[in-house]
């Protein structure tokens, strides 16, 4: 592979592990920085180039979130994919990373196959953006982007990378017309092997149930990651988004599936967080939706619908389904 990768991590041990892993995956052109300030300086001065950046969140002086935001502020680096490497699983840090412009994250100690899949998805996204940018006129790019988005008919759920590509293909004006619904399978994230197997089964079950819901051709529905799903739709107000969310929640409820938790069982349910169209950046809206549905799933009743805090300043329960 010819892609150049920049790895920023203040741990020498982590850098050695990253370099060895990337070499096994076929990425030989890797530039490592243990000091985030040196990395930022090299990038700002044009001394460093990359097709993708791997970046630790927890670093001294400049943490990964600040470094990500400062790189994103540079025009030539606005579309270079950034994957955060973190041992922290709290959604606060991950949401901040998305707000700063991160494309994805991998939790340490990362799985080699998972890292490879996420890197390839990000690199494909970068290639697609570069290809679209080579179109002859700005108007042609926008017409192409709109056609791609509206042609997404998810008879099967799309991937996270495909969903991101659809969103980033929208013109700035169309992004302001975009509403989002983030769904989460209710229940705690048990880290046991048995629980992980069950979560995968539940994800496949919910994906199948979601696929049965009729949605307009302009909508884009995808499995975001783990127990999160996301739907993007154009020109829908808050009431229409709530109605759409209820369709998915009721579809799962109608299946009457159960989930084993220890010695007991509970009904399978999903919660949703609605993010109406706004002037906010898409990454910010996604982060707010993820935070909102996480809060709803942990503190609210099962099958809860909430609104992103940026919309009304607090989470609002709309009833159990």
UniProtKB/TrEMBL annotation:
Gene3D superfamilies: 3.40.50.2300. Transmembrane segments: none annotated. InterPro entries: Bact_response_regulator (IPR050595), CheY-like_superfamily (IPR011006), Sig_transdc_resp-reg_receiver (IPR001789). The keyword Cell membrane does not apply. Keywords: Lyase, Phosphoprotein. Its EC number is 4.6.1.1. Residues 4-123 form the Response regulatory domain. One of its GO terms (molecular function) is adenylate cyclase activity. The modification 4-aspartylphosphate is found at residue 56. Pfam families: Response_reg (PF00072). It comes from the Bacteria. This is Adenylate cyclase 2. The gene is cyaB.
């Amino acid at each position: 592979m010819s892609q150049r990768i920049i790895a920023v991590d203040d741990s020498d041990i982590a850098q050695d592990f990253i370099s060895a892993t990337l070499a096994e995956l076929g990425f030989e052109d890797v530039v490592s920085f243990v000091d985030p300030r040196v990395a930022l300086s090299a990038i700002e001065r044009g001394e460093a180039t990359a097709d993708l950046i791997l970046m630790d969140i927890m670093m001294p002086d400049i943490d990964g979130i600040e470094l990500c935001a400062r790189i994103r502020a540079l025009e030539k680096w606005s579309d270079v994919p950034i994957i955060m490497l973190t041992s922290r699983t709290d959604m606060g840090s991950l949401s901040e990373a998305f707000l700063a412009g991160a494309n994805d994250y991998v939790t340490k100690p990362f799985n080699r196959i998972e890292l490879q899949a996420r890197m390839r998805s990000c690199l494909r996204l970068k290639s697609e953006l570069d290809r679209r940018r080579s179109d002859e006129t700005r108007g042609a790019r926008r017409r192409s982007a709109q056609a791609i988005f509206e042609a997404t008919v998810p008879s099967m759920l799309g991937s996270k990378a495909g969903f991101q590509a659809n969103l980033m293909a929208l013109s700035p004006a169309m992004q302001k017309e975009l509403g989002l619904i983030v769904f989460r399978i209710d229940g705690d994230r048990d880290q046991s092997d048995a629980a992980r197997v069950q979560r995968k089964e539940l994800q496949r079950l919910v994906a199948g149930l979601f696929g049965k819901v009729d949605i307009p051709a302009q909508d884009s529905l995808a499995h975001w990651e783990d127990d999160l799903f996301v739907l993007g739709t154009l020109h829908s107000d808050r009431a229409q988004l709530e109605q759409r969310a209820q369709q998915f929640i009721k579809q799962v409820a109608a299946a009457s599936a159960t989930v084993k938790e220890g010695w007991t069982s509970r009904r399978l349910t999903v919660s949703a967080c609605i993010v109406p169209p706004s002037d906010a950046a898409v990454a910010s809206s996604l982060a707010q939706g993820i935070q909102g549905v996480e809060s709803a799933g942990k503190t609210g009743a099962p099958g809860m619908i909430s609104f992103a805090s940026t919309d009304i300043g607090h989470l609002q329960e709309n009833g159990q389904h």
